[in-house]
Design a protein that fits this description.
Length: about 180
């Protein structure tokens, strides 16, 4: 995945892949600033940067992106797949990382410090996915003209066929 581009040996200057990858994307590929900042800060990289003495450098060059849902989504992608791209659980992924790195190594200490935050981000994305699936089923029902129960007129400007039972603050898209 792109967020791990800094593991490429020819790009490694600091040995800290989020920083090395972000610098490459910024300096050599003219990547979008949001992408560069996501790569630099993926999966709570600032915590590992502290362990490496690179916190101030990372924070100064690549401020954390102020888009929590996007940041969480990248954590989810990182924690829900193995290094070879096989789907996994956050529990298995964290355990796998700790089998590759000594518990008291820089990465081992970082993973133990970030554990709660990583799990929380994964769970937030999983909750959004559940909501999106429920919303998708409801929208498909609307599109198929299924009866979903009591109908109110929608004053929020969504699809005129909208037949979703709604609360006063109804939106035509899921709120997360």
């Amino acid at each position: 995945m792109l967020h791990d581009i800094g593991y490429t040996p020819s790009l490694a200057t600091t040995g800290f892949h989020p920083l090395d990858g972000a610098r490459y994307l910024r300096d050599r590929s003219a990547a979008d600033e949001r992408l560069v900042r996501l790569v630099a800060n993926h999966s709570y990289a600032l915590l590992e940067a502290e362990e490496r003495g690179l916190h101030e450098e990372l924070e100064a060059e690549f401020p954390i992106l102020d888009h929590a849902e996007l940041v969480d989504a990248l954590v989810y992608c990182d924690m829900a797949t193995t290094p070879d791209g096989t789907p996994t659980t956050v529990d298995a992924r964290l355990a796998e990382i700790l089998t590759r790195y000594d518990r008291d190594s820089i990465v081992g200490r970082f993973i133990r410090r970030a554990d709660e935050d990583l799990r929380a981000a994964v769970h937030r994305v999983e909750a959004r996915l559940i909501l999106a699936e429920r919303y998708g089923r409801a929208r498909r029902s609307v599109d198929d003209h299924e009866d979903l129960g009591p109908v109110w007129s929608c004053d929020q400007g969504c699809d005129p066929r909208c037949r979703i039972q709604r609360r006063p603050a109804h939106n035509s898209s899921p709120a997360w």
